User: What shape does this take?
Amino acid sequence: MHQGTRRPLDPEARLEYVPRTAQVTRLLKPRAVAIIGISPEPGSMGALVHANLKQFGYRGELHFVSRNTKEIDGRACVATVDQLPEGIDAAVLAVPAAAVVDSLAACGRRGIAGAVVFAAFYLIFVGWPNFTPRACALLIPATVRCTAVSRSN
Assistant: This one.
């Protein structure tokens, strides 16, 4: 654990207190999920997440973000996180390493309560020491809870 002086929160930041249990519930029992970086390519991380949600009977709303695809499985895709509707509880990030921090920031702007980051390649190229300060600076004010998943072969 880092020891040293704690930086005060930005006095200009607008923080709304949300009990942690409410935030975690939105992540673990989401009513609406966004898959960010979904692709119709079989075997892609976004396609696998979508297939798992269908296989296990997820009944909530699904929203897709894809820069290159207009529709997947009969469901419209938007090009950016900022185009998603409000009220999304959880996001799954299946994006390239370079897009992780910006995607998390966009999730915060949309009020998304939690994100799961499939981060194997992100960790290889950027590593936790570089990820943590940049991402935490975004996550703490936005009240986004984040879980990184490293996929091993």
Remarks:
- The longest strand covers residues 32-36.
- The mean pLDDT is 76.
